[in-house]
Amino acid sequence: MNHAQVTIDGTVFGKIGRGFMLLVGFGPDDGDEQLDYLVHKIVNLRVFEDENGKMNRGLNDVNGAILSISQFTLYANTQKGNRPSFTKAAKPAIAAPLYDRFNAKLAATGVHVETGQFGADMKVDLENDGPTTITFEK
Hints:
CATH topology: D-tyrosyl-trna(Tyr) Deacylase, Chain: A
Largest sheet: 3 strands, antiparallel
CATH class: Alpha Beta
Oligomer: single chain
Mean pLDDT: 94
Helix content: 10-25%
Strand order of the largest sheet: 2-1-8
């Protein structure tokens, strides 16, 4: 990804250049085991091109950053009817602290982390390079 930003109420809240924009959602049974796994995978993922055009470089190799956006709608269930159900998403009382811990764990690796605001109406702007989109789940 070349750059991304999140705007809340007309003000840029988080903005990065090269790196990863993460859409982050949690289920009710998620905890530190899942957070640790995801942080390790994300920080060590090699998807940036090397000098041979191969996906072989990670965030640290390209001095990349992370823009983390909370997104409970990732848990949308569309199997019945025409209106999505979000019952499989963690309730805010569970998801908000998980989101905060997730971002703190990412930052603790030394990667620069910008965020959105949990529960806010956010406008996200992204210039994807590729595009490459990967789903992580534990």
